[in-house]
From TrEMBL:
Gene3D superfamilies: NAD(P)-binding Rossmann-like Domain
Protein name per Swiss-Prot or TrEMBL: SDR family oxidoreductase
Species, as recorded: Paramicrobacterium chengjingii
Highest taxon above the source species: Bacteria
Family matches, as SUPFAM superfamilies: NAD(P)-binding Rossmann-fold domains
InterPro entries from the UniProt entry: Epimerase_deHydtase, NAD(P)-bd_dom_sf, NAD(P)-dependent_oxidoreduct
Length: 298
């Protein structure tokens, strides 16, 4: 298949592109800079210049390919309304381009705020509905498009998609530890995250494109639950720093923007995902990655 990928040079996108190319698929990646174009071309993919606000490029890329993987997001937590508006418009454009085509459309989401009682399962519908909702309600919007002949699939990623080179949440925790001289956890460290190695996430994206049924929700989750205290302890051991509890009131100053997420439990089951696609994650665990030094240097 020829696959259009947004967020194609990002952390998860790069792994997905590599997996797709390795498996014999062609890739067209949305690229918003010369550096992104060069990265895609070095990998053996084709670049389409544009970004999430370039609806013409989103339409053209979607129409010209056999499937779409939508991973890009502005992640602009300071301006959530703008972030939601952009995501909604982008997904609407992609869906219009795929209308009636039976092509697969994989749309990314996270676990934050998904359920009141963790762990979440693939049967749990997202509570975010409508243009003003988080991510513009894009998961539900995409899944509703199965009635339009689109093989829409929602893929929810664990809060830690880890590996050497990760610039996500765990990298921010490591940066806070370097800055403050201690590896911290919030309160009693009882909140917990799910995790998945980035290579396993890339493989799941490829499997979903190839054979996921229309309308399903999948969880890119290899480890169901790792306590935030265990994460802090691994970082402290790897970085030779003391490990300590941070009072919840002091967490924003200590951790920065990641504090809100580190205080939140975000765990999920992967039983349906594994059974449906035969996915067998085999990458290192999060703690193994941390102890191997993947987060120990700037």
């Amino acid at each position: 298949m020829r696959i259009f990928v947004t967020g194609s040079t990002g952390w998860i996108g790069s792994a997905a592109v590599a997996e797709l190319l390795r498996s014999g698929h062609e890739v067209v990646g949305l690229a918003r800079s010369d550096a992104s174009v060069a990265k895609l071309e070095r990998a053996g993919a084709e670049a389409l210049t544009g970004d999430l606000d370039d609806l013409v490029s989103l339409r053209d890329g979607s129409r010209s390919c056999d499937g779409v993987v939508h991973l890009a997001n502005k992640h602009d937590w300071a301006h959530p309304a703008e972030n939601n508006r952009t995501e909604r418009a982008a997904v609407e454009t992609i869906l219009d381009a795929l209308d009636g085509s039976t092509k697969p459309f994989i749309i990314a989401n996270g676990l934050s705020g998904l359920v009141d009682s963790w762990p979440a399962t693939e049967m749990d519908a997202s509570p975010e509905v409508g243009p003003g909702a988080d991510r513009g309600g894009s998961e539900n919007l995409a899944l509703s498009a199965t009635t339009r002949g689109i093989r829409s699939v929602a893929m929810r990623f664990a809060p830690s998609v880890h590996g050497r080179g990760d610039w996500g949440f765990v990298n921010w925790l490591a940066a806070a530890a370097r800055r403050t001289g201690v590896s911290g956890y919030i309160g009693d460290g009882g909140s917990a995250w799910s995790a998945v190695h980035v290579s396993d996430a890339g493989q799941l994206i490829r499997l979903a494109l190839e054979k996921a049924p229309a309308g399903v929700r999948l969880h890119a989750v290899a480890e169901g639950s790792i306590s935030t205290r265990a994460i802090a302890q691994a970082l402290g051991r790897a970085m030779n720093l003391p490990v300590t509890s941070i009072d919840p009131e002091d967490a924003p100053d200590h951790f920065g923007v990641v504090a809100h997420f580190f205080a939140e439990t975000m765990t999920a089951s992967n039983v349906f995902t594994r059974e449906t696609l035969g996915w067998q994650p085999s990458g290192p665990t999060l703690v193994e990655d941390i102890l191997a030094g993947g987060y120990s240097t700037d």
